[in-house]
Non-specific serine/threonine protein kinase (Brassica oleracea), 666 residues
Amino acid sequence: INTSSPLSIRQTLSSPNGVYELGFFSPNNTLNQYVGIWFKNITPQVVVWVANRDKPVTKTAANLTISTNGSLILLDGKQDVIWSTGEAFTSKKCHAELLDTGNLVVTDDVSRKTLWRTSFSYSQLRNYKLSYVTLTSEGKMKILWSDGKNWTLHFAAPVSSCDLYGACGPFGLCLRTSTPKCLSCQANSSAKTQGKEADIFYHMKHVKTPDMYQFASFLNAEQCHQGCLGNCSCTAFAYISGIGCLVWNRELVDTVQFSSDGESLSLRLASSELVGSSRTLIIAGATASLSLLTILVFSAYTFWRYRAKQNVAPNFMFINTSQDARKNDLEPQDVSGINFFEMHTIRTATNNFSFSNKLGQGGFGPVYKGKLVDGIEIAVKRLSSSSAQGTEEFMNEITLISKLQHRNLVRLLGCCIKGEEKLLIYEFLENKSLDVFLFDSTLKFEIDWAKRFEIIQGIARGLLYLHRDSRLRVIHRDLKVSNILLDERMVPKISDFGLARMFQGTHFQDTTRRVVGTLGYMSPEYAWTGVFSEKSDIYAFGVLLLEIISGEKISRFNNGEEGNNLIAYAWECWCETKGVDFLDQDLAGSCCPLQVSRCVQIGLICVQHQPVERPNTVKLLSMLTTILVLPSPKQPIFALHSRDENSTSNDVITVNGLTQSAVQGR
């Protein structure tokens, strides 16, 4: 496509090998025309990109062409502009072509420089897997992957009928077994009650708690129990470690019981509803207990014989208490659901912590790669005896990250405590951390602008989960580029929760006299007064965002002007070129200038001096994923200078003598 050869409504443009096709199309039952890209020779038509999504062509005449300023434009029959790329270039001679990657690109005919491209990045030439999402007539969503020859099922949901919301109705319980079934409570109008003293609680274990709960400000399980008992409308309660007291004052909807894990739910009943079956329950209970004891004794004997023959320990064992855990102040509720690995298993997996297995060194201590006997690769973080913060971070990470699960958070597989040795075991991520790619003159080309923008969005989604969507509300307090790990598909995962803090209810701000973190990423109010909140993580995200765009490190940046740091340079570029020049110039050919400019603007908004001027995480993700009009940033304050984050110094620094807070650099 060029100025003399436009694409009209009845024409199409194919990629060189006939993989994709560009043209005009009309959705079913409509006369509206859209410019789009779809897979060629695939029925039904699968459209992967649409230009004029919000403004269709309603006339019978239209064409896609190149304007005199080099931008790609869609004109209707009256030659009015329906859609354009919005770019203006000095190039006088250029053309648009469709590549086999699915990208429509505008190229300068003289310099061969790419002036504009779509953001669609699927490429059969680079062995990407094509995904297909479908919804079956039974209401099941399926994701299938294609290797170029066959479609294979990758994911299906719901896995169980119990995963459907409210599957068993009000006061119904869905048993999530191999053959799920519903159990329901029925109202008994003849149940005898003589006030709250006559009510009792039936305790159900391994439960996914019902929807529509309310937080109650009770300090322990007994207060939670009595609080529900004293409220006539309270139908159930649950006291969950790390979260607190949850109460239900209405119908119990979407309750699921598992064979293991889950929480305990206490269901309120009239005592007379259980009295009639007490004798039967006692007899049945005694019989069941005797049978269970026999089975347990036989199982223990069989297991002992097996261990004696094999003379090896299992990869890991699940425990609720241990002497080593108690010595380190771990309560049973803290270790619930955590896998405890045996020390010899980890030594074998890491070749006795050999130097060849060492992945790196952090503030916590060294990190090693390991491989369990079943082939699972792991990363082992070993507490260094010289780490002043290590023990506290270790305890914090065990009790916190084991309760969090999200695609953009690193997964903790378990831990190992043996005497003075303390180890954290994580999933192994092939591509290590983001800084390995970002600040390397060669590896940085493996993450072009499109991939960097995906990483930025992934980090924001992980942060949203921590701040708003998880059952715990968490402030990370040490968000930085070296704490962003990458899996084999470059999906970002937030790691290192040693400094994280958890909040309950609506309380989401705190003050500390021990300010810890990485200089350069700490917000002014946290570094100077010890106050931290959701907005502290937003500030750190802003710094991280600017590092990803520029490819420069906050602690090492120097553009030749004394005292000028990365944030100051971002502001200068924003004022002069709307931030386009702030991008690492080695990536200029792969970027969308408008997208880069928008990201620089978001980064500057995130590092505003006043917390109230920074967005919350919900607003931040909306800024990154929509085209909402952004507020204009104010000039940031650059009073806090950064040090090399790799410094291992534990010196305590008083910032400007303004407060009694102390800053510990990591």
In short: The chain has a mean pLDDT of 78. The two ends are 55 Å apart (CA to CA). The CA atoms of residues 120 and 178 lie 41 Å apart. The chain has four domains: 7-126, 161-188+195-278, 317-427, 434-665.
